[in-house]
Specification:
Blueprint (H helix, E strand, L loop, with lengths): L9 E6 L2 E5 L5 H20 L5 H13 L4 E7 L5 E9 L7 H4 L5 H7 L7 E9 L1 H6 L6 H16 L6 E7 H9 L5 E2 L4 E3 L2 E8 L1 H10 L9
Helix pairs in contact: 1-2
């Protein structure tokens, strides 16, 4: 499911004037720019922190380098503006994520301590939603609905095998939203500042993903 790597954006499903795409390699720069802009807006508003051009460059470089092991989703309106994004990346040999090198979490130890059987480890990131545009354009989907739909599609990719493990670095607000949606996101390390925001290192087990996905089937929107 969605493990191909298209050059162009591929439409997946639509809510009237808003369409969900699997983002292709040719549109990755716009994908990264959108996430950067949303982080800059929200983190400056909440924490008076603003990312630099170097931060943008690192994001763009990472998205390009990880393309073959990642799936990128994005919602767009009829004007082709990106409205919401998420990215799921399979952990490859020798690749480390911020949860490991910034939060100093040893994933092998966590897996052993919790007695998990893990086939693949997947990182979830680049979650960003332009709630201002959703409201101002009176679009037929709320920020919370978009958040949930992005999770359904991305966790569906990660959970294609029942013993896959999701890892992430979660802003405290995002952590609360995950729990309000019924997802058992577990904290596995100390709270730290990351991109100007207080952030937890977290995991979601394959069992918990499967349970949540079974309770949150794909919405009844028409295929695009």
């Amino acid at each position: 499911m969605f493990l191909n790597h298209p050059q162009q954006d591929v439409p997946i499903a639509a809510h009237d004037s808003v369409t969900l795409y699997q983002i292709g390699q040719n549109n990755l720069a716009n994908f990264s720019q959108f996430v950067f802009d949303m982080y800059a807006y929200h983190y400056f508003k909440k924490y008076q922190w603003y990312p630099t051009v170097h931060d943008l460059y690192k994001m763009q470089q990472s998205d390009q380098e990880q393309f073959q092991s990642s799936v990128y989703f994005g919602y767009r309106n009829e004007q082709n503006q990106i409205l919401g994004t998420i990215k799921a990346t399979r952990k490859e040999e020798g690749v480390k994520f911020p949860i490991e090198y910034e939060f100093e979490v040893n994933l092998d130890e966590i897996i052993q301590e919790k007695g998990l059987k893990v086939k693949e480890v997947w990182h979830l990131g680049r979650l960003a939603i332009d709630s201002n545009t959703l409201r101002s354009q009176k679009l037929p989907i709320t920020s919370r609905q978009m958040f949930r739909y992005l999770l359904i599609h991305s966790l569906g990719v990660i959970n294609h095998h029942p013993n896959n493990l999701m890892i992430a670095e979660s802003d405290v607000l995002i952590y609360e939203i995950f729990h309000s949606l019924g997802l058992n996101m577990q904290v596995v390390g100390k709270l730290r500042q990351c991109l100007g925001s207080p952030t937890y290192p977290v995991i979601i087990t394959g069992e918990d993903m499967h349970k949540w996905l079974s309770q949150n089937p794909l919405p009844n929107y028409h295929k695009s």
